[in-house]
Write a structure and sequence with these properties.
alpha/beta, 17% strand, 457 residues
Length: 457
């Protein structure tokens, strides 16, 4: 995933990211408002080694090194009961050394000899008093008990107050701006994480790269989404200047390169699943080919849910199935549409065994007759995955145009459809992507392709 893909993912899931950010901000505010107010007061204590007035440089260095060595252990002693119990007794605190220790934190600067003791308390004045009392108790305990030495000792340990604790004027918690900022950061991070997770788990086709990864055949064309497609399905005839009509003409141009040399091209138009635009694609492609002067036959071979006759507004009760069983001749049921050389063969009576009829010798003979009479034959077949009809037909034709709907067809289904055609010894010549978005995050990936490149081809 490159930067452009990442930005497109963020735009696609912008609502999720914004919602997660709002939740994070609100959570941060709630946490801040529910956090009890507390103040922090700090005192700084330096561990000093007094080696006497006539000490040599070596003794001074050794004294400093010793102070650095013991300061770490002194820091832990500072929160012990030896230090805290006198503080509790002197200030009359209603607490135990263990309870008081939980409100005291210590820190030591790296390679330093200064210990910082910080006391947290709801009362600012009490926080400062406890911090200073801890400093005094710590100094007394170190010099009088832990480091008590005889008079003839060459050095002495002293705890020197560097910075006494002062009464804080602002609470350390709650910090409303910080809580809101952290909540917003966590919310944005969670939103981006959810967006990326949904993108990984979402197997629907969104980019041309998705189609190319699912099927090795090239993408022959793309048709933009039209909310009024159901009201004007035959866009090439009804609105010739519409960008969708131009997209089908571009598909026609690309299809010319797939025609067999000096022979009729017979193409099966199908899809992985239903409602992906295969019948509309077959119908408009056939009309576009007829406009270019080809003698075109459009055959409705979807013998389960035929769509061609309703799209063209013609009678479909008698058609392909009646020809295959020998009830009528193909010339008697082929219907001219428009004033050109474009003919439609509807499905006819729905049979109980569509796959067997489409794979019969009669179907092979019919295709041969159509190849002799027309320049190109377009066959609208049922979806590949639910039934085997399209796979059966693929063996009898030049190849298959596999239709995939953007944001509907999954890469798994598209791959499985192509594999099923290959298993039937058919050939997927190319793919056609329908319902391409013209707005939103994926407009960069699809909109220009459907409205620009295809229209100008």
């Amino acid at each position: 995933m490159d930067l452009r893909d990442f930005i497109r993912v963020l735009r696609r899931h912008l609502v999720v990211i914004v919602a997660a950010t709002v939740i994070g901000v609100c959570s941060g505010a709630v946490v801040a408002l529910m956090t009890p107010q507390r103040y922090e007061a700090s005192t700084q204590l330096m561990v000093n080694v007094d080696t006497g007035g006539d000490s040599t440089a070596v003794e001074l260095t050794q004294g400093g090194s010793y102070a650095q060595q013991v300061v770490g252990s002194y820091s832990s002693v500072l929160t012990s009961s030896l230090v805290l119990q006198p503080v509790i007794d002197d200030l009359g605190l209603d607490a135990t050394p263990a309870t008081l220790a939980r409100s005291v934190s210590t820190s030591v600067a790296p390679n330093g000899v200064i210990i910082t003791a910080t006391v947290s308390h709801p009362n600012p004045g009490q926080a400062a008093r406890i911090a200073n009392a801890i400093g005094d108790s710590f100094a007394t305990m170190i010099t009088d008990r832990l480091e008590r030495r005889e008079q003839n000792t060459s050095y002495q340990i002293r705890i020197v107050p560097v910075q006494p604790a002062t009464v804080p004027t602002r609470p350390a918690a709650p910090n409303l701006p910080l809580s809101i900022t952290l909540g917003a950061i966590l919310g944005v991070g969670a939103g981006i994480g959810i967006a990326l997770l949904r993108e990984v788990l979402d197997r629907r086709i969104r980019t041309l790269a998705d189609v190319e990864k699912a099927v090795t055949a090239p993408v022959l064309g793309g048709v933009a989404f039209d909310p009024q497609a159901s009201a004007r399905p035959l866009i090439v005839a009804n609105a010739p200047l519409d960008p969708r009509a131009e997209a089908f003409r571009s598909l026609r141009t690309n299809l010319r390169f797939l025609f067999p040399p000096h022979a009729t091209g017979v193409f099966v138009v199908t899809s992985a699943g239903p409602s992906e635009g295969k019948s509309t694609t077959a119908a408009n492609l056939a009309i576009a080919l007829g406009e270019a002067g080809y003698r075109v036959a459009l055959v409705d071979a979807d013998l389960r849910k035929p769509r061609i006759a309703p799209l063209f507004g013609i009678e479909g009760a008698i058609g392909l199935t009646d020809v295959l069983i020998g009830r009528v001749a193909v010339n008697d049921v082929m219907q001219r549409w428009g004033r050109g050389t474009f003919f439609v063969l509807p499905s006819g009576t729905i049979p109980p065994n569509p796959a067997e009829m489409l794979g019969s010798d009669a179907m092979t003979t019919l295709i041969g007759d159509l190849k002799a009479a027309f320049d190109v034959v377009i066959i609208d077949a049922p979806p590949v995955l639910p039934v085997t009809d399209a796979a059966v037909l693929s063996r009898l034709t030049t190849g298959v145009l596999l239709v995939a709907a953007a944001e509907a067809t999954t890469t798994d289904n598209l791959t499985a459809a192509a594999a099923r055609i290959d298993a039937a010894e058919g050939r997927v010549l190319g793919t056609v992507v329908t319902m391409l978005p013209i707005r939103g995050a994926d407009k960069t990936a699809y909109g220009t392709y459907g409205y620009g490149a295809l229209a100008k081809a």
